[in-house]
Design brief:
The protein is α/β, with parallel strands linked by helices and 480 residues long. The chain folds into 2 domains: 272 residues, Aldehyde Dehydrogenase, Chain A, domain 1; 192 residues, Aldehyde Dehydrogenase, Chain A, domain 2 (3-Layer(aba) Sandwich). It contains 15 helices and 25 strands. The strands form 7 sheets. Strands 15-18-19-14-13-21-22 form a 7-stranded mixed sheet, sandwiched between helices. A 6-stranded mixed sheet has the order 10-9-8-11-12-24, sandwiched between helices. The termini are far apart. The structure holds nicotinamide-adenine-dinucleotide. The site of nicotinamide-adenine-dinucleotide has 31 residues, from α7 and α8.
Length: 480
């Protein structure tokens, strides 16, 4: 049993009250680590450390901050294989995915913001011979970064890196369901020489330490990724205190396939978008709209591909579908499959719990499900399921596809599959979606703005957007 500790003031600390939560390996259903169930006392220690470290860190030159972030990136790269294994054990995701996506991206986040901050310039606005304005951007102080369990180190580092690069000190609260790689990050930061208190990682449940963190008056900004309901709860606490808030929330994303698409590419894209990471990605395309003239053959081929996905022990090299994060989450996903039946849907494949023999026989595995026969506005097609469940919906023309694709309260991401680029541009313009991919999915450039519309969030992360979020602007106007 591994005992995880908080990382506060440059040291590993046990929770003051000695309270721990079980960290369960989803593939086996067994606890394998203990996570601190931190409380307000632990949080106060982190706040004191972060406050104490702020003036020194904010005064560091940009070059020095950049150098330290690069050392953290190198530390992650050095330990990439062990981190990928830890991420796979903690979340149930296939080790191949953790190796190819999660861990390289965590290193890339630190590397990217280490460089980006050296290019982050202030603005100047001349007023002819009358005056000149210039804009200062200063770090905010102590900021909070809260992340979910589905991409643990990837998303935590996506927040921590720009916050630190901009000169803030950070209190991070990883998900209590997948805290292991955040724990390791503490050690990597110590080895990289990050000054004590600049980054503090406090573990524990959302309602206890998460809520106390976002409510704490010392916290100047909150960068949160997680569920829409949690986002609303955080906003209700943060808004009356006028804290800066960036919310990256849920999705119910459309994949729109036109008859003129490159069929192989679209099938691959729709499959990956539906089932990557067991469908546990905010960007997953769980509503697949297919032009009626190709609906039947597309359906047949997609179902065949879903059935061919290799489900099994996440630590096996050839596994493509791992375990869902918890038994409660598996039950929630299964309850949506039942709801789909009650709403008149047909289950074309999957949607049942699977037993993986051997060490994983008590794990939380679900056979990827494809449904059809549901209306676009039923609950199954409006609510976020966050699991390997996708619904096929035929459409006759562009307007119908757009109206239905836009017909949910979410607006995070969409993919459009067509050889007609005019149409690609047209649809992209009209989609209510923070991110639109045409003939691809999940292709990311870290300079681009990332985030959602409607109930998928407020604000954008990525590139200079993140550095703007983590700084306070002051305009100085000088009369000439
Ligand atoms: P969650 O909202 O339950 O938890 C996210 C984090 O918030 C965790 O660290 C949790 O402990 C903490 N938390 C929970 N309640 C809190 C409270 N009252 N106050 C403060 N903190 C609290 O989400 P989850 O189940 O971990 O993640 C799944 C959700 O995240 C899905 O809805 C998914 O779409 C979303 N997500 C969004 C993005 C994006 O970029 N938009 C990316 C990944 C995941």
């Amino acid at each position: 049993m591994i005992t995880i500790a908080n990382y506060v003031g440059g040291k590993f600390l046990a929770p003051a009250a000695g309270h721990y939560l079980d960290d369960i390996e989803p593939a086996t259903g067994r606890p394998y680590a203990l996570v601190p169930g931190s409380d307000a006392v632990d949080l106060e220690a982190a706040v004191a450390a972060a406050r104490g470290a702020f003036p020194g860190w904010a005064r560091q030159t940009v070059e020095e901050r950049s150098r330290l972030l690069l050392r953290i990136a190198e530390g992650i790269e050095r330990e990439a294989e062990a981190l990928a294994r830890a991420e796979s054990i903690d979340t149930g995701k296939p080790i191949g995915l953790a190796r190819q996506v999660d861990i390289p991206r965590a290193a890339a986040n630190f590397r990217f913001f280490a460089h980006a901050v050296t290019q982050f310039a202030s603005e100047s606005h001349g007023m002819g011979t009358a005056a000149i304005n210039y804009t200062l951007r200063d770090p905010l102080g102590v900021v909070a970064c809260l992340s979910p369990w589905n991409l643990p180190l990837y998303l935590l580092s996506w927040k921590i890196a720009p916050a630190l690069a901009a000169g803030n000190t950070v209190i991070a609260k990883p998900s209590e369901l997948a805290p292991m790689t955040a724990y390791w990050l503490g050690r990597i930061c110590i080895e990289a020489g990050l000054p004590p208190g600049v980054l503090n990682i406090v573990h524990g449940s959302g309602p206890s330490v998460g809520q106390a963190l976002v409510a704490h008056p010392a916290i100047k900004a909150i960068s949160f990724t997680g569920g829409t309901k949690t986002g609303a709860a955080i906003a209700s606490v943060a808004a009356p205190q006028f804290k800066k808030l960036s919310l990256e929330l849920g999705g119910k994303n459309p994949t729109i396939v036109f008859a003129d698409c490159d069929r192989e590419q679209a099938l691959d894209g729709a499959l990956r978008a539906a089932f990557a990471n067991q469908g546990e990605l905010c960007l997953c395309g769980s509503r697949i709209f297919v032009e009626r003239s190709i609906y039947e053959p597309f359906k047949r081929d997609l179902v065949a591909r879903a059935e061919a996905l290799r489900l099994g022990d996440p630590l096996s090299e050839d596994t493509e579908q791992g375990a869902l994060i918890t038994e409660a989450h598996l039950d929630k996903v299964l309850s949506y499959v039942q709801l789909a039946r009650e709403e008149g849907g047909r289950i074309l494949t999957g949607g049942v719990r699977v037993t993986v023999p051997g060490r994983c026989e008590a794990g939380y595995f679900l056979k990827p499900a494809i449904l059809e026969g549901l209306t676009h506005d039923c609950r199954t097609n409006r609510e976020e399921i966050f699991g390997p469940v996708a619904c096929l919906l035929p459409f006759d023309d562009e307007d119908e596809a757009l109206a239905e694709a836009n017909g949910t309260e979410f607006g995070l991401a969409a993919s459009v599959w067509t050889r007609d680029l005019q149409r690609g541009h047209r649809i992209a313009q009209r989609l209510d979606s923070g991110v639109v991919w045409v003939n691809t999915w999940l292709l990311r450039d870290l300079r681009t703005p990332f985030g959602g519309m409607k109930h998928s969030g407020v604000g954008r992360e990525g590139g200079f957007e993140a550095l703007r979020f983590f700084t306070e602007v002051k305009n100085v106007c000088i009369k000439l």
